[in-house]
Request: fold
Amino acid sequence: MSEPKRLHPATVIFNLLNGIRYSVFFIVIIFVTLNDIHLIYAILGEIALFTILFIASFLSWRRFTYTYRIEEDELRLEYGILVRKKRYISKNRIQSIDLTQNILHRIFKLVKVEIETAGTGAEAEASLNAVTLVQGEALRKELKTVVKVELAENEEEIEVRTPSESISRKRLLIAGATSGRIGVLLALGGAAFSELERFIPTDFYNQAYSWVVGLGLIILAVMIVAILFLLWIIGIAGTMIKYWNFNISKVNEDIVITCGLLEKKHITIPLKRIQAVGHVENIVRQPLGFTTVIAEIAGGSNEKGEQFSTVLFPLMEIGEVDAFLEKFLPEYVTNQSEITRLPKRSMKYYLVRSTLPTLLLLIAVMIIIPQFAWIPVVLVVLSILLGYLQYKDSGIFIDGKRISLSYRIFSKVTMIINHKRIQAFNKKQHFLHRKEHLATVQLSIIGKMGTGKHYHIKELDEQTVEELESWYSYRGG
Reply:
């Protein structure tokens, strides 16, 4: 692979589609502006814009070359239309190489190669948008060091068993049904409607509003239930498409994840980049005994999932987590049943924080529109329940060189962090805390894109915090 190579010609199509996606605003502005003059000008303006995008896409493909020189152990990229740029990436700096196939890639039998280093930011350090699958696999094999175990006598290679685990179709269906994507889809739908509303004629909007009001409460309720059911089905489909054929395996010093139906992903996570491991139980899954296993990865831009962390396994029973970690990450196995919970005197702080916003809302509604006061009353009750759950599920447990943290915002999160991964420890107390011998702690690790990831446990017993402080200060192990 020492000869310069050009990306597959289909790269022109990928570049053009990306250009159109990033130029949607200009496409709309040009059409709306010129259409006021004459439709033909709007059409000609769009043709001119698409021509420019196509030429830029073609030149970008033509000017992009990549080379891997084994003797110098580096990947060399040359690209740029007006300004020629060169990038050299040492093999020793490469942390992971991910292969991705969307629908267009699969049509042309191509793959996208994303290369990440320790300094990778929001985007991959290097991205080859379209190479053949054979070239992508060869490039990954060349750039990724493969450790071979050999016999001393005859130098025959020993077959090393690779632990792996897949998710069943039934579990994947449950993962989709309990993902809680309805709220996300409603938010996206509301944002999209607010943008499209300006283009809806006033008469049409008023007629539609009158029609909806005239339907009656029963029909309107049925329509709302039908819409929520449709969004639920869409959420299930989205989860199943994303994690279809999900498989995780441990190869040497890497965790390798493959998944996807429409877009196939092959993600490599070096073990040394894992900063913390845990699991998330949302409000729907927790009563059913299911959880999602996640990990915090340092300096990467891998696939995000629960709480913007990397998903190691989409869904499993809570009792299966220890066996999963024993197989793939034994250094993160700990006794989570011994987590030290918060003292009872901490409860009032959690209840006040969770209910204060809804109480203020209740007061405002009772003053302005008292006939709708029942809505904030329901929210107050729910916020009290949430505050109690946040108090009940918070705590820590120190187990040798590991610490387990448990907390809840909406979903219950349990994280396990090795002592050497903690970058900073902060202790906070205000005068009420000091009076009641309570304290809040913050533990920080390196998160995605090299930024910090912070974990807060509020209103811990002061003695527990002092023990944690002593544990953290001992850096000998």
